[in-house]
Specification:
The structure holds 2 protein chains of 2 kinds. By secondary structure, chain A is an alpha/beta fold. Chain A contains 12 helices and 12 strands. Chain A folds into 2 domains: 154 residues, Rossmann fold (3-Layer(aba) Sandwich); 128 residues, Rossmann fold. In chain A, helix 1 packs parallel to helix 2. Chain B is built from 10 helices and 7 strands. The two termini of chain B are 20 Å apart. Classes of the chains: A alpha/beta, B alpha/beta.
Chain lengths: 301, 239
């Protein structure tokens, strides 16, 4: 996804307001952007607090700064700068966190971003963008180039199945229609899961959500939950502050209460051992097999 | 203001008010920008803004009261001259770097001034910003340190002794001016100094300057002032 991110940003590289800052990360990925942007590509060094403060100052001056790093280095270390200098000021700074969820795999817990959008969305004016597929990036980046509020872009690894045509980008998408149980995904893990759901013949009505916070789910989604009486929410993020909790509140407010509501969030480090993103997903029940198993259980109970 | 509203922070306001007055009355131009990193000196900044006609008597009377624009630390909005809501230390210099860098990228004129406390240099983010402003040669930025040598719980050398700040700035390669922070003529010269690098102005000041019972006493970082103390302070400052 990072390569596609760079390719798409290159199209905006001539925009005189666009400034890209990196916390000394992006090796073998962002070099073309650096070449294209010249002085407006700034390696701010391994100093994320300063980078975000500088971005706020640039934004206050009418420029459009994007600040990039490995996700936890970007939202956790400089949290107060994000709070005070960006969000409270409502400045359109775009924070780009690479490696959402367990994206950095066996690199370990310091590199994982399991509570990123939950934490950031406690702040005023913030909106999170979570692409599932490479093809989502174009629409998101176009929007992020013009937004008037702080934003967080969570990059991962696109796992789009070859057969899947996601259709036009939208914050909510009915990505694989069906008349079985309702399932809602956030982020790239949807790709492999959709592949498994399709093969299983479960006919789950599958939704993909790519922007948070949510304000009133679409009527078609509410109808789906009413019809199936079952909802599975899958996200590579801890339950606290996550999409599942937001959605539960929205469903209650809308008077839509499924008979079964199953949340599959990131659970941290279940065994205390480390491995690939796939390993950690499996430990949390976020892997395609576990998701299909849960949906099977729902379909036959 | 501080007496009427019963709030403290007066010591660090009195140590930097000469810097602020010199800056606003003698140095700042329309294209320039100022960031108060030591946000607890908001009172001194409000008075300075009042002195240049940006705030009214009524504004000052509302300081620290319910419904005021003049919060205890600079507000988010409502006062155009206040660019950023500061108060948590260690933010202003990075913000100032952003303002200065933007002027360079946009090829716009104007100089950026950032007023900091000395205790604020406990914050690691300032050292990040120092590396950045030097590396990017932000020669349109002047950082000013109100060196009153006292912070919240005692003398800076007792709390976290980082040695002479001026020497640190010089070691980073910054042209550094040490100046009497209550001598407005010397201050003006220092603040007007321009080099091919960002300039550091280390202003040697006295916490609680001008009020005998406050001078160089760290407790006036926080203490509110009684009526009797207020009358004596006014008497001394009027001389």
């Amino acid at each position: 996804m990072r390569q596609e991110f760079c390719r798409t940003l290159l199209e905006f590289s001539a925009c005189p307001e666009f400034v890209f800052l990196t916390g000394d990360l992006g090796f073998m990925a962002l070099e073309p952007l650096r070449e294209a942007m010249g002085r407006r590509f700034i390696n701010a060094g391994v100093a994320e607090q300063n980078m975000v403060g500088v971005a706020a100052g640039l934004s206050k001056s009418g420029l459009r700064p994007w600040a990039y790093s490995i996700a936890p280095f970007l939202y956790a270390r400089p949290f107060e700068q994000i709070r005070n200098d960006v969000c409270l000021q409502n400045l359109p700074v775009v924070l780009v966190g690479n490696g959402g969820g367990y994206g950095y795999g066996v690199m370990g817990s310091t590199h994982h971003a399991l509570e990123d959008y939950g934490v950031l969305l406690t702040l005023p004016n913030m909106r999170a963008y979570i692409p599932a597929f490479d093809s989502d990036l174009r629409c998101m980046i176009q929007e992020l180039m013009t937004v008037k509020h702080p934003a967080y872009l969570r990059l991962g690894y696109s796992e789009q199945p070859s057969w899947l045509v996601p259709g036009p980008y939208a914050a909510w998408r009915r990505i694989l229609p069906g008349d079985g149980p309702t399932v809602a995904f956030v982020g790239p893990l949807a790709g492999a899961a959709l592949d498994a759901i399709r093969e299983s013949g479960l006919n789950a009505d599958s939704w993909l959500v790519s922007e948070l916070p949510i304000h009133r789910p679409p009527p078609e989604f509410l109808s789906s939950v009413r019809r199936s009486g079952y909802l599975l929410v899958v996200e590579e993020h801890v339950s606290g502050g996550g999409f599942g909790q937001m959605l539960a509140c929205e469903l209650l407010a809308a008077g839509v209460c499924p008979t079964r509501f199953v949340l599959r969030p990131a659970l941290g480090y279940v065994s205390g051992l480390y491995g690939s993103q796939r390993f950690h997903r499996k430990e949390c029940g976020l892997d395609p097999e576990s998701i299909v198993s849960e949906l099977n259980h729902a379909a036959h109970s | 203001m501080h007496f009427e509203s019963g709030v403290g922070h007066i010591g660090g306001n009195l140590s930097c008010i000469d810097i602020l007055m010199t800056l606003y009355h003698e140095v700042l131009h329309a294209d320039d920008a100022f960031v108060l990193s030591k946000g607890h000196a908001a009172g001194a900044m409000y008075v300075t803004l009042w002195s240049v006609g940006a705030l009214s008597d009524d504004d000052l009377r509302s300081f620290h009261k319910d419904g005021t624009r003049l919060s205890g630390h600079p507000p988010l909005r409502g006062i155009p001259e206040v660019l950023f809501a500061t108060g948590s230390l260690g933010h202003g210099l990075s913000l100032s770097c952003g303002l200065a860098l933007a002027r360079k990228l946009k090829q716009e004129p104007g100089h950026v001034f950032c007023l900091m406390s000395d205790g604020e240099w406990n914050e690691g983010s300032n050292w990040e910003a120092l590396i950045f402003l030097k590396h990017h040669r932000l020669d349109n930025l002047t950082l000013i340190v109100d060196l009153n040598e006292l912070q919240g719980m005692g003398p800076t050398r007792d709390v976290a002794d980082f040695g002479p700040l001026a020497g640190k700035f010089r070691a980073f390669g910054l042209p550094t001016v040490e100046v009497d922070g209550h001598d407005c003529v010397s201050l003006e010269a220092a603040l007007r100094r321009r080099e091919s690098e960002p300039v550091a102005v280390v202003a040697n000041t006295t916490k609680g300057n001008g009020v005998s019972f406050m001078e160089n006493r760290f407790e006036w970082h926080y203490l509110p002032i009684s009526e009797e103390q207020y009358r004596q302070a006014i008497l001394e400052l009027s001389k």
